Amino acid sequence: MVTSKYWFILILLVHLTTVCLGQEIVKLDKTKISQDDLDDKITTLMKVANVHGLGIVVFNNNEPVYKKTFGYKNAITKEPIKTETNFYGASLSKSVFAVMVMQLVEKGILDLDKPLQEYLPKPIFDYKPTKKWHDKYVDLKNDPAYLKITTRMCLDHTSGFPNWRWDEPDEKLKVKSIPGSRYSYSGEGLVYLQVVIEHLLNKSLEQLMQENIFIPLKMKNSSYTWQPKFEKNYCIGHNVTGELYEKDKDNEARAASTLETTLDDYTLFTEAVLKNQLLTSSTTKEMFTQQIKIRSIAQFGPMRLKDSDSNDGINLGYGLGWGLLDSPYGFGAFKEGHGDGFQHYSIIFPQKGKGIIIMSNSDNAESIFKELLEITFGDIYTPWRWENYIPYDQKD
User: Fold this and answer.
1) pTM (2 d.p.)
2) Which helix (H) or strand (E) holds 176?
3) pLDDT value of position 72
4) Helix H segments across 19-149?
5) d(Cα 296, Cα 388) in Å, to the nearest integer?
6) C-alpha pair distances (Å), 176 with each of 168, 218, 304
7) DSSP conformational letter for 27
């Protein structure tokens, strides 16, 4: 049970961890909300939904105009989250990796439609694994369908791989659908692309990300592996009742899932994407061009295999590393993050220079995403049902 004293302290923490960048936020429909009003609404939502910690950035005119943190990085010790506090980024990893991949495409190092196996001098399954599990491809030896998989298919989630090999009854990696034929979210697809690139360039994922993204943008507290410097200021994940998850610090670098970052750093990344600082405008346009239309009822679970027209109104689809939708204000490009104790969401509307980043260390956070998106900058287009962002007041 969340006590009134807890929430009084939470409200005070807002003022201790605030970066005020503007007086009013202009929403997509040109209505406005003051920062004070938004503070109050966010704090109220967190209280009713029992969200333990949250960081939010809102962009107007391609610039952050509101960047604030609420609540605790650890609800037991009552240490406040700050904008420089480390978050486990979960699948936000994918969008950052996708930009780096598009840089390689831009330089002519990768071709979006060349089968990835053709970049290697020997079959992927003949390379001796050097990691705990993610570069082990012996299961593909008798699965020639993988030979068709391209960079484009990995980025738009049509590789045919499952999300993770551990999702399979036999825990073996396999191509489950014809590559390029259907959207099916796959961390394995992004990791396969990563491993091919590492062999091709003889550089690690971490080295590539530092050289091409983190160092140029001065993202000093971002990495695809845990760093000792993160020890002094990081978030602990909370389950729905507020109990703490054990922090996982031994992940090997994986393009799909192991990003460690901060609200400050991810703001720098998002701003760079909005301003085309990392890619040319033509490459950005390609990245944000729909590659596959999404017709599934839900992104995950049994309904991912059943289709409907429920999202035709927003023309839901996938680009290269980003989900895409249409709105009266131009297209929206979004990316989610979800792991034990961490729930994130980011969407940008580049044609309007608007966007939002939501980062949380609570398993209850997704239950307020729908309302947060509406009150912060008027996003009523995110497919919250497809994302399973069921509002707290609609849960059983």
Assistant:
1) 0.94
2) none
3) 98
4) 35-49, 92-106
5) 13
6) 10, 40, 14
7) -
Of 102, 390, 100, 149, the closest CA to residue 255 belongs to: 100
Contact 203, 253 (CB under 8 A): no
Residue 271 pLDDT exceeds 50: yes
Which pLDDT belongs to residue 359? 98
Residue 210 DSSP one-character state: I
**Cα(377)–Cα(312) distance, integer angstroms:** 23
Give every CB contact of residue 316 below 8 A, 6+ residues apart in sequence.
Answer: 293, 294, 323, 324, 325, 383, 386
Q: At what angle do helices 263-274 and 92-106 cross, to 10 degrees?
A: 40
Weakest mean pLDDT among 20-34, 77-91, 171-185, 188-202: 20-34
Residue 71 and residue 17 in contact, taking contact as beta carbons nearer than 8 Å:
no
Nearest to 45 by CA among 304, 268, 362, 334: 362
* Contact (CB, 8 A) for 68 and 43: no
What would the pLDDT profile of 287-345 be if each residue is shown by its tens digit? 999 999 999 999 999 999 999 999 999 999 999 999 999 999 999 999 999 999 999 99
* Residue reference for tokens 């940008």: 348
Please name the amino acid found at residue 220.
Answer: K
Determine the Cα–Cα distance for residues 220 and 243; give it in Å rounded to an integer.
Answer: 30
| Amino acid residing at 116 | L
Beta bridge partners of 90: 259
Residue 7: what pLDDT? 46
Query: d(Cα 284, Cα 320) in Å, to the nearest integer?
Result: 10
